Structure formats: C-alpha cells, structure tokens
Amino acid sequence: MSTPVAVDPDRCPRCAGRFTCGAAGPAPCDCFTLTIDPGVLADLRERYFGCLCLACLRELSDAPSAGQTSGPV
Ligand SMILES: [Zn+2]
Predict the structure, then answer these.
(1) How far is CA 71 from the centre of its chain?
(2) What span, in angstroms and rounded, lies between the C-alpha atoms of 50 and 13?
(3) What separation in Å is there between the alpha carbon of 55 and the centre of ligand 1?
(4) 50 CA to middle of ligand 1, Å?
(5) I need a labelling partner for 63 at 20 to 30 A (CA). Which of 2, 28, 33, 72 fits?
C-alpha cells in the first residue's frame, strides 16, 4: 500500500504553517478581509503555488511598498 503524498492545499508555502483556505471550503476565505497590494499578490503568485496563511498575508499587507525606502540608510 502506498501512502498518498498529496500536496496539502491548506499548507502555507511561505512558512509551511497550516491554515484554512476559504477557497477550498464553504466559508469565504479570511484573506478577503485583508488588503494586499496587487503588485505583492502578483509577486506571490510567481513565487508560491497556492495560498498563503493569514499570518503571512497580514505580514505582507502591512509591509510598505517595495519601492519605498523609509528606513534609516
Ligand atoms: Zn504562512
């Protein structure tokens, strides 16, 4: 008997943490409550396959634009 090694759709490809993606369930995905920059989303789509967990999405949505350097240099 072979163990099925299916890709877990509810696993975050960024931090490997578990989360619940609303796209795979009846409830709306929590990610809809976040406002993520379209540019960031496009970048994520190229980097990762599937959804990210809320923690990562929150982190990314809170992050300033990549084009801005407001920190001390
Ligand atoms: Zn994550």
Answers:
(1) 25
(2) 8
(3) 6
(4) 11
(5) 28
Cα 12 to middle of ligand 1, angstroms:
5
Q: Indicate the SS3 state at residue 54.
A: helix
**2: CA distance to ligand 1 center in Å?**
29
| Residues 18-70: tens digit of each pLDDT | 887 666 667 677 777 888 888 888 888 899 877 788 888 888 887 665 555 55
Are residues 14 and 20 in contact, defined by beta-carbon separation less than 8 angstroms?
no
Is the entire prediction scored with pTM above 0.85?
no
- For residue 19, give both structure tokens: 């989360």
Query: Which residues is 18 bridged to in the sheet?
Result: 11
- The strand ranges marked E within 1-73 are none
